[in-house]
Design a protein that fits this description.
This protein is α/β, with parallel strands linked by helices. It is 39% helix and 23% strand. Strands 1-8-7-4-5-6 form a 6-stranded mixed beta sheet, with helices on one face. Strands 2-3 form a two-stranded antiparallel sheet. β2 and β3 form a beta hairpin. The longest helix is centred in the N-terminal third of the chain and has 20 residues. The termini are far apart.
């Protein structure tokens, strides 16, 4: 084998290895890395920390925006899932990525969509950068009672709520 071919093969193997390790989990894939703690202001004025729920709740962090149609299409399903499972220790933290100039829109959307779970404001997108560096919307992270990330999912298509409901059920049963 010539030196050029050996170099090309070595480079190709290195590139494939890097690509395999840099890719995130497939949508819906179980990951189990610890969820980084954060604290954000809620729409109601209080400060919410992820660690407030550690050890006792299954948490769904949902990154969304008032200008994201798939986010708005998904929201009624998240409200229903929350209503169904909140008594079993399920919490939804809806993290709005809208900027300060659209806070009024966030408030009216929360009211119109009957979002009865905590709505957090990540106006500087610092939390989104840790969990969702590509800034996909919507983007959901399911965290188990032990504080580990169980699933990540970007985007929304009708029917995704069925898979999400199964993931939540399984996490609540663990």
């Amino acid at each position: 084998m010539t030196r050029t071919i050996r170099c090309a093969l070595s480079l190709a193997i290195t590139a494939l290895s890097l690509a395999a390790t840099s890719c995130g989990a497939a949508p819906g894939a179980r990951t189990s890395s610890p969820a980084p703690d954060f604290s954000l202001p809620a729409l109601d004025g209080r400060t919410v920390r992820l660690s407030d729920y550690a050890g006792k709740n299954v948490v769904l962090i949902d990154f969304w925006s008032t200008t994201c149609d798939p986010c708005l299409a998904e929201m009624p399903h998240l409200v229903e899932l929350y209503k169904k499972h909140k008594d079993r220790g399920f919490v939804v933290l809806a993290v709005s990525l809208d900027g300060p100039e659209s806070r009024a829109q966030v408030s009216s959307t929360v009211h119109d969509r009957e979002m009865i779970f905590p709505v957090l404001l990540d106006e500087e997108t610092t939390v989104a950068a840790r969990y969702n560096p590509k800034r996909e919307l919507p983007f959901s992270v399911l965290i188990g009672k032990d504080g580990s990330i169980l699933h990540k999912r970007g985007g929304y298509q009708p029917g995704d709520e069925v898979v999400l409901a199964q993931e939540i059920e399984r996490a609540l049963d663990e």
